[in-house]
Amino acid sequence: MKRSKFYQLKLREAAFIARGLASQKHPVLAHVIPMRRCNLACTYCNEYDNFSEPVPFEEMRQRLDKLADLGTEIITLSGGEPMMHPQIFEIIAHIRERGMIAGLITNGFYLTPEKIKKFNNARLDYLQISIDNVEPDEVSKKSLKLLDKRLCWLAEHANFHVNINSVIGGGIKQPEDALVVGRRAVELGFSTTMGVIHDGAGTLKPLAERERRVYEEAKVLAKKEYARLGWFQDNLVAGQPNDWKCRSGARYLYICEDGLVHYCSQQRGTPGTPLADYTQADIDREYHTEKYCAPLCTVACSHKTALLDDWRNLIRLYLDFIPRPGQRRVAPLPPSLPPAAEARLEHPASKPPKAETVRQILRAE
What is the pTM of this model? Predict the structure, then answer.
């Protein structure tokens, strides 16, 4: 990724963070499915089929326009395998034309130098590939052996951010493979993350001791990404629930191939409202709705988007105790923070921005 492109993306990310801190009234991230069909059949995956047709481009365009009108900041295309869609480059270009950040999650098997250059021309912002093992097996064909050549093509040609995600759990035979994958990603100049396999409701599948050891080692490779979000996985790996507020249906939307809004990929059917009919009232309602699955949720996108509102609320809490010029403090500091805020403050990189830098944004809402 060229340095100029990198800084442009960081500026746009800073802008959406500022807008997210300023208002809770719009979605931050939407996962959109243009293609449910996949060329693979990983045994742990419940998000694909082998027969669906691609969503017609005009329908995709209408859905993206609706999301833009709702104020959505980031669109991530997923599947299935989104690169099987015959107009994937046009879809990405339309996301960018509407002023949103464009991301893609792919298994990588359809990548070629020519297609990577087409992604550059469409102005793709980031791409993620999940690699499950070093050698392909009956659980997953998403192996470093089969994908390494494509990773080299990305390193040579991609003008967008690339993240390599590995997973533990889910029957992966050699959990240590995640460390090999992570080191290779760093060697090629990519970021790396690790996910914990969830069950069909998006909640934790217990990890064995061997898998927990690998997780601890992997945190060192992905230290920047872990510092932002790793606290919630720490609790889950230790078998502890998280005390947090899920904002799915409001800050995070999952749009299936039928154009319905769901909480996430693992809670399809709830609320199940057509995106075309989704309104500000739906966003406001779901923002405050308790989700039964939240304590043991492993869906990172839900946690990431909720983090903005934790920052927002924490900043507001402390702004109330900051005396203005010429004023004396009139109220004591709160005796303790909410549990979720305390968890975040244990990781310095996850602290909210300084109060002075966001005071005007928050007061202007």
Answer: 0.84
